[in-house]
Design goal:
The protein has 2 domains: 190 residues, Rna Polymerase Sigma Factor, Chain: A, CATH 1.10.1740; 112 residues, Nuclear Transport Factor 2, Chain: A (Roll), CATH 3.10.450.50. The chain is built from 13 helices and 7 strands. Helix 9 crosses helix 10. It has 335 residues and is of the alpha+beta class. A 5-stranded mixed beta sheet has the order 3-7-6-5-4. Strands 1-2 form a two-stranded antiparallel ribbon. InterPro entries: NTF2-like_dom_sf, RNA_pol_sigma-70-like, RNA_pol_sigma-70_dom, RNA_pol_sigma-G_actinobac, RNA_pol_sigma70_ECF_CS, RNA_pol_sigma70_r2, RNA_pol_sigma70_r4_t2, RNA_pol_sigma_r2. It comes from Nonomuraea terrae. This is RNA polymerase sigma factor. Interacts transiently with the RNA polymerase catalytic core formed by RpoA, RpoB, RpoC and RpoZ (2 alpha, 1 beta, 1 beta' and 1 omega subunit) to form the RNA polymerase holoenzyme that can initiate transcription. Belongs to the sigma-70 factor family. ECF subfamily.
Length: 335
């Protein structure tokens, strides 16, 4: 085994814990990496609950394979390799983890298994590449889902995390040439899926919401609570892209059609017109958590999370997540 004196502190302590069978020390060391590994699994799977499960699976596999860690690579790298392959194994067994064509003539597609990622679960002191806003926003996560699993892994390891080709090839048990080819194909797909977005994921990135975004989400909440359809409509871009998840077939690409659909389904009508909302952030994006009080109910109950992509003071994309009777992301079930 590699001489512990030549290793980093984490690697040396990890090897010592393996040699002594110290499960508590093993858990303490690996737990430091939980949040960034969970973000990695989320990018691979686009589902917060699955990412939690696969992170736990990563730690289980790490324990079972603990004797294989010789310190030739950083412990963090070794754990990422296990997490990546755990996600690939998961995707191989799940045919429902690919985008499906929308019912509209628009060539877009839907990702019904998409879930938002709560900002409070992001690493507290992250490396820039791990949680750069441009690589955690919903549009990016959806775009990545259009990549075949191994292309997806190669793209995330190389272009998001900035791993060298040889390191990514080792993690994926592929040749450098295969990883390079997969990455080139992945970049083409990402350009098609995100034509108006920055595609250099390793350049300086933003983290914080702008004043413009904070103002729009405040106005969105105010319009909701006042049942002000005109005010709500004024916040939406004409070419709004609206999706309600997890239900398939809800992709709508104009503001008018979206608002007409909300009204025809009963929203803002009697029984669905008493709202209270709070602001939050998910995927480093502004979001409104909507609570509804129905007649004869003394409490406002968790109803929907609306995640907003704001461009030039208007809502360009609105992704709604149905959370009725599903207390989630540590949100209160009632107000």
């Amino acid at each position: 085994m590699t001489d512990a004196r030549l290793l980093g502190a984490d690697e040396a302590t990890f090897i010592a814990a393996v040699r002594s069978g110290d499960t508590a020390q093993f858990a303490l060391i690996t737990e430091r990496h939980r949040r960034e590994l969970q973000v990695h699994c989320y990018r691979m799977l686009a589902n917060y609950e699955d990412a939690q499960d696969l992170t736990q699976e990563t730690f289980l596999r790490a324990w079972n394979k603990r004797e294989s860690f010789k310190g030739h690579a950083a412990l963090r790298t070794w754990l990422y390799r296990i997490a990546t392959n755990a996600c690939l194994d998961f995707l191989e067994k799940r045919n429902d983890r690919t985008p499906v064509p929308s019912e509209l003539p628009d060539p877009g597609s839907e990702v019904p298994y998409l879930q938002p990622y709560p900002d409070w679960m992001l690493p507290e002191d992250p490396q820039e590449s791990v949680v750069a806003r441009e690589t955690i926003e919903l549009a990016f996560i959806v775009a990545v889902q259009h990549l075949p699993p191994r292309q997806r892994a190669a793209f995330i390891l190389r272009d998001v995390l900035g791993w060298p080709a040889s390191k990514a090839a080792d993690a994926l048990e592929l040749t450098v040439a295969s990883v390079t080819s997969a990455l080139q194909r992945a970049r083409v797909t990402m350009r098609e899926q995100l034509p108006d977005r920055r595609l250099d994921w390793r350049s300086p990135a933003t983290h914080e919401l702008s004043d413009d975004e904070r103002s729009v989400v405040k106005s969105y909440i105010d319009a909701h609570e006042r049942n002000d359809l005109d005010g709500l409509m004024a916040l939406l871009r004409d070419d709004l892209r609206f999706t309600m998840l997890p239900e398939p077939g809800t992709l709508i690409v104009t503001a008018k059609d979206a608002v007409d659909g909300w009204v025809s389904s009963g929203l803002f009508q009697r029984g669905y017109d008493d709202w209270r909302c709070i602001t939050t952030t998910v995927n480093r994006m502004p979001a409104a958590v909507l609570y509804l009080r129905t007649p004869d109910d003394p409490e406002y109950r968790l109803f929907n999370i609306a995640v907003l992509h704001i461009v030039d003071g208007k809502i360009a994309e609105l992704t709604g997540f149905d959370v009725t009777d599903k207390p989630w992301l540590s949100l209160s079930a009632t107000l």
